[in-house]
Amino acid sequence: MSSKTANKVASKPKQKRSARRPRQADPGPAVSQVAAVSQSAAAQPPAAADLLTHPPATAFPPLATPSTPGQAQSRLGLAALQSKIDGTPWECDFYHLLDQGFEWRVAVFIAWASSPVIGRTPKTQGRLATEFLNLTSDRVIRKWRAMNPKIDQFIAKLKAEPLLRYRDAAFRTLGELAIREDPDTHQDRQLFFEMTGDYRPKSAMTLMGPNNGPVEFIDLGIFARMNEAELERFAANLETAIRSGVAGAPAPAGG
Question: Distance (Å, rounded) from C-alpha 39 to C-alpha 121?
């Protein structure tokens, strides 16, 4: 090697190492799916993970086992439920009802039925039965409501809860308006005193029994069991009570 070539080699600048990170291999579809599931689980409510792996004992009918007719479909429906209710307005109500001991299908129906109709998912009870509850039709839902009045009671309760959240604030606002020395707040003061029992409008009608006591009710069926003499005696006593100005009516004999 000549001295001239040696000088060129010696003066050749050193190459800088790239600051870029080496390109990583594609993790593949399996790893990507696992990551997606992990991210989805992180965004789910706390009870969601347990719902899929460890359903509460009350989520299914008492004494029902996976081998009980219909329970295999029920358990498959519960396992697939989370992805369907995720993000629905009634999702939190469903978990609340499940914690109170309702079976999972009944809890889904109550939560769905108590949510606002506008924008509700799904739109119909039939689709709720087939797409969310893993049922063939909504006939079973009608049977639940006929056999368990508690279902309609909870639906009414959940519908009213949003309104009741404002009750304390409404009472406080009413009180603040009532104490204002302003003629425009006269109706607020009147409503306030009516609610506290300090004022009763003249047009108000109150039913009361003898001596301002409770109203007495008579079982009209008792007259069918009375003979003619007893009916005449009761009518006479009633006429006497009316003429003497005594409020109320005498109780029938034996009543």
Answer: 24
Q: Which two tokens stand for residue 39?
A: 């991210």
With a cut of 70, say whether residue 161 has pLDDT above it. Answer: yes
Indicate the pTM of the whole model: 0.51
Q: Write the DSSP string, 28-96.
A: HHHHHHHHHHHHHHHHS-HHHHHHHHS--GGGS-TT--TTSTTHHHHHHHHHTTHHHHTT-TTHHHHHH
How far is the C-alpha of 103 from the C-alpha of 141, rounded, in Å?
12
How far apart (Å, rounded) are the C-alpha atoms in residues 178 and 198? Answer: 14
Query: Which amino acid, residue 107?
Result: A
| Whether 127 contacts 162, CB under 8 Å | no
Kindly report, residue by residue over 54-99, the tens digit of the pLDDT. Answer: 766 676 766 666 666 666 777 777 777 878 888 888 988 888 888 8
Over residues 19-46, mean pLDDT: 40
Residue 232 host element (H or E)? helix 228-243
Q: Tally the C-alpha atoms within 13 A of residue 225's C-alpha that lie toward its C-beta.
A: 8
